[in-house]
Design goal:
2 strands, two-stranded parallel sheet, alpha+beta, 66 residues
Length: 66
């Protein structure tokens, strides 16, 4: 099961759940498969622990993550 599939199933059970995708691919294919919008929270690997915690905080606070 892919990340987007897991996220889709979880949002059925908990619609308020926050999702942060991450990948090491520059143009991750998840955006080409449909279902995931380009403005979805996404974190490019590699990243530092500081960047991870910062992005998680932004997502939890409902801020737009670039």
């Amino acid at each position: 099961m892919s990340g987007p599939e897991v996220a889709e199933k979880l949002t059925v059970v908990r619609p308020e759940i926050k999702v942060l995708y991450m990948s090491g691919y520059p143009d991750h294919p998840v955006f080409e498969q449909g279902g995931v919008k380009r403005d979805t929270a996404f974190l490019q690997k590699p990243f530092t622990p500081h960047v991870l915690t910062q992005r998680v905080r932004e997502v939890l606070d409902g801020k737009k993550v670039a």
